Amino acid sequence: MTDADPATPQGKVQGNAQRTVRRTVIVVGGGAAGLVAALGLSAAGASVTLIAPDRRPDPRTTALMDGSVNVLKTLGVWPRLEENAAALKVMRLIDGTRRLLRAPEVAFAAREMELDAFAWNVENLNLNAALDTAVTEAPIDRITAQLTHVVSRPDHVEVTLDDGRILHAALLAAADGRNSLVRRSLGIPVRARSYPQVAVTATLAHSRAHGDVSTEFHTETGPFTLVPLPGKRSSVVCVVDAAEAERLVGLDPEAFAGEMERRAHSILGSMRLESERGSFPLSAGTADRLSFGRVALLGEAAHVIPPIGAQGLNLGIRDGATLAELVADTLRADGDIGGAALAEAYERRRRADIETRSFAVDLFNRSLLTGIVPIHGLRGLALWLMQSTPSLRRAVMRQGIGPTRDVPRLVAGRPL
Ligand SMILES: Cc1cc2nc3c(=O)[nH]c(=O)nc-3n(C[C@H](O)[C@H](O)[C@H](O)COP(=O)(O)OP(=O)(O)OC[C@H]3O[C@@H](n4cnc5c(N)ncnc54)[C@H](O)[C@@H]3O)c2cc1C
After folding, report:
1. In angstroms, what is the span from residue 24 Cα to ligand 1's centroid?
2. pLDDT in tens, 212-227
3. Does the beta carbon of 32 lie inside 6 Å of ligand 1?
4. For the chain, which residues make up each domain, given as ranges?
5. 271 Cα: distance to centroid of ligand 1 (angstroms)
């Protein structure tokens, strides 16, 4: 029997099945946010069923902030990933625009925060493989299927799968991505923004060592970022307009590598393309509600932000860590894990983190795109203040890594 018991024809869950359903969470979506949430909820003592269709290979990399690494350590995933992760010890911001008012170069060093590194960069193929293995070893019931229908009822949530199965649970954690069927089915609106930019991604080998330094060049079309990988390798995220993205993706591998070297001002020497190239139109959106009845939204089902400052999945991991903590505490108190108290607490604890980061990334991106000279001056002034004022620089670094208040236990590296 799966913990997510089949329904009676009347849609009611009765007797022993009702008691089982009280501890059951269905997680939908087998992306990184869904997998982390499934592991956290299982560690919280819930009976977890994960609905995850097969994934397509993902050639991108993810910079996992210190707090996200704490989550993976506490859930036992990190030892499987560590040897394939590169530490980001210094972050350099360089104004690569040709504008009248240009900002000074600023470097942030993790040791100023008494950290080994701000973040660790991992290939998504390795991250997803480590999470898949951990899910297989945990007491999680994984079903390879698509969710097709969801109903949140007063005493349980009911989901229908594309193989015809109907499952019940006390709580549904929806991590089914930016086009979330769950979010749309529940009629939750999204405040969406689009940008005239596309992120071109690739992994490159290079002749010079990166020295654990991540470098972000600010250009008139958006950031061009080099993020260290193990060895003499880096991932690039090159934000350009749509026509230029098409041109870059169409270049032969040698010409593409040469173009990346030129944009990197040859700081890493000569370059060679090592991966498939990716092309991701920039967009942003935040769901008006993060919970609805017995459903909580996580990851990109709840928030999409442009790949600037490595915030997206780090937010998604904090969603899962927060939900797992609330479920652990509610189960200890013998409460209802799909009840209004948990839903309100989830909304309250996640909203500020999501809104402030979405706002900051949007503001920063627009400050690069705008032709308004005083805004370039303000951006330059802010960077100059950061460069010259250590206490301000440390405050900005602390905020960039993650929230400092109401930090979920898993993010602080503590067990549930
Ligand atoms: C170029 C780029 C670089 C980035 N770099 C970083 C970075 O360095 N650091 C960072 O923190 N973030 C980064 N991000 C953001 C990060 O990639 C996303 O936040 C993250 O991948 C979202 O994960 P997710 O699990 O929410 O969604 P997805 O990975 O989209 O997973 C959703 C899953 O749900 C499944 N699904 C969909 N519908 C259904 C259904 N009906 N039933 C069942 N399953 C369903 C899908 O098959 C999919 O597997 C980057 C993004 C981009 C575009």
Report:
1. 24
2. 999 999 888 889 999 9
3. yes
4. 15-57+125-192+285-368, 62-123+195-282
5. 28
**Tokens matching residue 213:** 């330094």
pTM of the entire predicted model? 0.92
Q: 3.40.190.10, 1.10.10.10, 3.40.1280.10, 3.30.9.10: which CATH number matches 62-123+195-282?
A: 3.30.9.10
Nearest CA to ligand 1 atom 15: 312
The topology under which CATH files domain 15-57+125-192+285-368 is FAD/NAD(P)-binding domain (3.50.50)
Q: What is the mean pLDDT of residues 88-115?
A: 78
Q: Is the minimum distance from the CB of 33 to ligand 1 under 6 angstroms?
A: yes
To test ligand 1's pocket by mutation, which of 313, 357, 358 has the most ligand atoms within 8 angstroms of CB?
A: 313
